Amino acid sequence: MSAFKNPATSTLLDLVKSRRTYYGLKAESPISDDAIQRIVEDSVLHVPSSFNTQTSRVVLLLKDEHKKLWDLTIKVFEGLVAAGHVPKEQFESSTLPKLNAFKAGYGTVLFFVDFESLAAIKEKFAIYADKFDPFATESVAMSQYLVWLALEAEGFGANLQHYTPLIDEEVAKAWDLPASWKLDAQLVFGVPQNPSEPAEKQFQPLESRFKVFGK
Protein backbone atom coordinates (compact mmCIF):
# COMPACT_ATOMS: atom_id res chain seq x y z
CA MET A 1 0.00 0.00 0.00
CA SER A 2 1.33 3.43 -0.99
CA ALA A 3 2.17 5.69 1.94
CA PHE A 4 1.48 9.42 1.73
CA LYS A 5 3.52 12.03 3.57
CA ASN A 6 0.44 14.13 4.31
CA PRO A 7 -2.67 12.41 5.80
CA ALA A 8 -4.81 15.00 4.02
CA THR A 9 -3.91 13.32 0.72
CA SER A 10 -5.73 10.15 1.74
CA THR A 11 -8.69 12.22 2.93
CA LEU A 12 -8.85 14.04 -0.40
CA LEU A 13 -8.65 10.84 -2.43
CA ASP A 14 -11.31 9.22 -0.26
CA LEU A 15 -13.60 12.15 -1.08
CA VAL A 16 -12.85 11.70 -4.77
CA LYS A 17 -13.74 8.01 -4.53
CA SER A 18 -16.96 8.59 -2.59
CA ARG A 19 -18.34 11.41 -4.75
CA ARG A 20 -21.30 10.12 -6.73
CA THR A 21 -24.44 11.37 -8.47
CA TYR A 22 -27.62 11.56 -6.37
CA TYR A 23 -31.00 12.32 -7.95
CA GLY A 24 -33.28 11.71 -4.99
CA LEU A 25 -32.80 14.82 -2.85
CA LYS A 26 -34.61 16.50 0.05
CA ALA A 27 -34.85 20.24 0.69
CA GLU A 28 -32.72 19.95 3.81
CA SER A 29 -29.19 21.00 4.72
CA PRO A 30 -26.73 19.51 7.23
CA ILE A 31 -24.82 22.81 7.39
CA SER A 32 -25.62 26.52 7.53
CA ASP A 33 -26.24 28.60 4.42
CA ASP A 34 -23.15 30.63 5.36
CA ALA A 35 -21.06 27.43 5.23
CA ILE A 36 -22.46 26.59 1.80
CA GLN A 37 -21.65 30.11 0.64
CA ARG A 38 -18.09 29.76 1.92
CA ILE A 39 -17.59 26.59 -0.15
CA VAL A 40 -18.72 28.38 -3.30
CA GLU A 41 -16.76 31.55 -2.56
CA ASP A 42 -13.56 29.60 -2.01
CA SER A 43 -14.03 27.85 -5.34
CA VAL A 44 -14.45 31.21 -7.09
CA LEU A 45 -11.33 32.63 -5.46
CA HIS A 46 -8.95 29.70 -5.49
CA VAL A 47 -9.64 27.39 -8.45
CA PRO A 48 -6.89 28.04 -11.02
CA SER A 49 -7.40 29.56 -14.46
CA SER A 50 -4.97 29.96 -17.35
CA PHE A 51 -2.84 33.10 -17.00
CA ASN A 52 -4.94 33.84 -13.87
CA THR A 53 -7.72 35.13 -16.15
CA GLN A 54 -10.38 34.30 -13.51
CA THR A 55 -13.15 33.73 -16.06
CA SER A 56 -15.55 31.69 -13.92
CA ARG A 57 -18.74 33.30 -12.62
CA VAL A 58 -20.96 31.55 -10.08
CA VAL A 59 -24.45 32.10 -8.65
CA LEU A 60 -25.71 30.28 -5.54
CA LEU A 61 -29.46 29.72 -5.33
CA LEU A 62 -30.98 28.48 -2.07
CA LYS A 63 -34.50 27.52 -0.95
CA ASP A 64 -37.15 29.53 -2.82
CA GLU A 65 -34.62 30.94 -5.28
CA HIS A 66 -33.58 27.37 -6.09
CA LYS A 67 -37.22 26.39 -6.65
CA LYS A 68 -37.63 29.46 -8.85
CA LEU A 69 -34.92 28.14 -11.17
CA TRP A 70 -36.61 24.80 -11.71
CA ASP A 71 -40.08 26.36 -12.06
CA LEU A 72 -38.54 28.55 -14.73
CA THR A 73 -37.03 25.51 -16.43
CA ILE A 74 -40.37 23.66 -16.37
CA LYS A 75 -42.02 26.70 -17.95
CA VAL A 76 -39.39 26.77 -20.71
CA PHE A 77 -40.05 23.12 -21.50
CA GLU A 78 -43.81 23.69 -21.47
CA GLY A 79 -43.19 26.30 -24.15
CA LEU A 80 -41.13 23.83 -26.16
CA VAL A 81 -43.97 21.30 -25.91
CA ALA A 82 -46.52 23.88 -27.02
CA ALA A 83 -44.33 24.80 -29.98
CA GLY A 84 -44.01 21.16 -31.02
CA HIS A 85 -40.27 20.94 -30.32
CA VAL A 86 -40.62 18.40 -27.51
CA PRO A 87 -43.21 15.57 -27.56
CA LYS A 88 -45.83 16.06 -24.84
CA GLU A 89 -45.69 12.42 -23.76
CA GLN A 90 -41.91 12.55 -23.41
CA PHE A 91 -42.12 15.72 -21.35
CA GLU A 92 -44.82 14.39 -19.01
CA SER A 93 -43.35 10.91 -18.54
CA SER A 94 -39.64 11.71 -18.41
CA THR A 95 -38.56 15.36 -18.39
CA LEU A 96 -41.11 16.78 -15.93
CA PRO A 97 -40.47 14.17 -13.21
CA LYS A 98 -36.72 14.86 -13.47
CA LEU A 99 -37.22 18.62 -13.23
CA ASN A 100 -39.49 18.21 -10.21
CA ALA A 101 -36.86 15.98 -8.60
CA PHE A 102 -34.28 18.74 -9.03
CA LYS A 103 -36.75 21.26 -7.58
CA ALA A 104 -37.16 19.04 -4.51
CA GLY A 105 -33.53 19.70 -3.52
CA TYR A 106 -32.15 22.44 -1.27
CA GLY A 107 -30.13 24.52 -3.70
CA THR A 108 -28.48 24.90 -7.08
CA VAL A 109 -25.11 26.35 -8.00
CA LEU A 110 -25.08 27.97 -11.43
CA PHE A 111 -21.71 28.03 -13.18
CA PHE A 112 -20.92 30.53 -15.93
CA VAL A 113 -17.94 31.57 -18.04
CA ASP A 114 -17.25 35.19 -19.04
CA PHE A 115 -15.58 34.64 -22.40
CA GLU A 116 -15.71 38.36 -23.21
CA SER A 117 -13.24 39.07 -20.40
CA LEU A 118 -10.62 37.20 -22.43
CA ALA A 119 -10.44 39.79 -25.22
CA ALA A 120 -7.31 41.54 -23.92
CA ILE A 121 -5.27 38.41 -23.25
CA LYS A 122 -6.25 36.92 -26.62
CA GLU A 123 -4.82 40.04 -28.23
CA LYS A 124 -1.68 39.95 -26.08
CA PHE A 125 -1.00 36.27 -26.77
CA ALA A 126 -2.46 35.97 -30.24
CA ILE A 127 -0.68 32.69 -30.97
CA TYR A 128 -2.80 31.04 -28.24
CA ALA A 129 -6.00 32.98 -28.94
CA ASP A 130 -8.03 29.93 -29.92
CA LYS A 131 -7.01 28.11 -26.73
CA PHE A 132 -8.29 30.56 -24.13
CA ASP A 133 -11.99 29.68 -24.46
CA PRO A 134 -11.33 25.95 -23.89
CA PHE A 135 -9.00 26.84 -21.00
CA ALA A 136 -11.82 28.89 -19.44
CA THR A 137 -14.21 25.95 -19.77
CA GLU A 138 -11.66 23.70 -18.07
CA SER A 139 -11.38 26.17 -15.19
CA VAL A 140 -15.12 26.34 -14.55
CA ALA A 141 -15.25 22.53 -14.71
CA MET A 142 -12.66 22.41 -11.92
CA SER A 143 -14.89 24.74 -9.88
CA GLN A 144 -17.85 22.44 -10.43
CA TYR A 145 -15.87 19.43 -9.24
CA LEU A 146 -14.47 21.20 -6.18
CA VAL A 147 -17.88 22.43 -5.04
CA TRP A 148 -19.37 18.98 -5.65
CA LEU A 149 -16.67 17.31 -3.55
CA ALA A 150 -16.99 19.81 -0.71
CA LEU A 151 -20.78 19.59 -0.62
CA GLU A 152 -20.66 15.80 -0.51
CA ALA A 153 -18.05 15.94 2.26
CA GLU A 154 -20.56 18.00 4.29
CA GLY A 155 -23.37 15.46 3.88
CA PHE A 156 -25.08 16.60 0.69
CA GLY A 157 -25.86 14.61 -2.41
CA ALA A 158 -25.68 16.36 -5.77
CA ASN A 159 -26.09 15.98 -9.51
CA LEU A 160 -24.72 18.09 -12.34
CA GLN A 161 -27.08 19.25 -15.09
CA HIS A 162 -26.68 21.06 -18.41
CA TYR A 163 -29.85 22.83 -19.54
CA THR A 164 -27.97 25.45 -21.49
CA PRO A 165 -28.81 27.08 -23.89
CA LEU A 166 -32.51 26.36 -23.31
CA ILE A 167 -32.76 28.34 -20.06
CA ASP A 168 -29.96 30.88 -20.55
CA GLU A 169 -32.11 33.87 -21.44
CA GLU A 170 -34.65 33.27 -18.68
CA VAL A 171 -31.94 32.76 -16.06
CA ALA A 172 -30.23 36.02 -17.03
CA LYS A 173 -33.53 37.88 -16.77
CA ALA A 174 -34.61 36.30 -13.50
CA TRP A 175 -31.44 37.23 -11.64
CA ASP A 176 -30.38 40.30 -13.67
CA LEU A 177 -27.06 38.79 -14.75
CA PRO A 178 -24.58 40.38 -17.17
CA ALA A 179 -25.00 39.38 -20.80
CA SER A 180 -21.35 38.28 -20.92
CA TRP A 181 -22.00 35.49 -18.38
CA LYS A 182 -22.53 32.32 -20.41
CA LEU A 183 -24.21 29.51 -18.51
CA ASP A 184 -22.27 26.24 -18.44
CA ALA A 185 -23.84 23.93 -15.82
CA GLN A 186 -26.18 23.63 -12.87
CA LEU A 187 -25.16 21.68 -9.73
CA VAL A 188 -28.26 20.58 -7.81
CA PHE A 189 -27.82 19.58 -4.17
CA GLY A 190 -29.77 18.46 -1.12
CA VAL A 191 -29.81 15.71 1.47
CA PRO A 192 -29.97 12.24 -0.16
CA GLN A 193 -33.32 10.54 0.44
CA ASN A 194 -32.79 7.15 -1.19
CA PRO A 195 -30.53 4.72 0.76
CA SER A 196 -30.08 2.54 -2.33
CA GLU A 197 -28.75 5.42 -4.42
CA PRO A 198 -26.35 5.53 -6.11
CA ALA A 199 -25.82 2.18 -7.80
CA GLU A 200 -22.39 0.56 -7.82
CA LYS A 201 -20.06 2.30 -10.25
CA GLN A 202 -18.49 0.32 -13.07
CA PHE A 203 -14.94 1.07 -14.20
CA GLN A 204 -13.17 0.43 -17.47
CA PRO A 205 -9.83 -1.37 -17.04
CA LEU A 206 -7.22 1.05 -15.67
CA GLU A 207 -4.61 -0.50 -17.97
CA SER A 208 -6.46 0.85 -21.01
CA ARG A 209 -6.64 4.37 -19.58
CA PHE A 210 -3.34 4.98 -17.78
CA LYS A 211 0.37 4.51 -18.47
CA VAL A 212 3.41 5.25 -16.32
CA PHE A 213 7.04 5.62 -17.44
CA GLY A 214 10.25 6.05 -15.48
CA LYS A 215 9.07 4.39 -12.29
Automatic annotation (TrEMBL):
Its main location: cytoplasm. One of its GO terms (cellular component) is nucleus. CDD domains: Frm2-like. Keywords: Cytoplasm, Nucleus, Oxidoreductase. Residues 16-190 form the Nitroreductase domain. One of its GO terms (molecular function) is oxidoreductase activity. One of its GO terms (biological process) is cellular response to oxidative stress. It is found in: Cytoplasm; Nucleus. Belongs to the nitroreductase family. This is Nitroreductase domain-containing protein. It comes from Penicillium chermesinum.
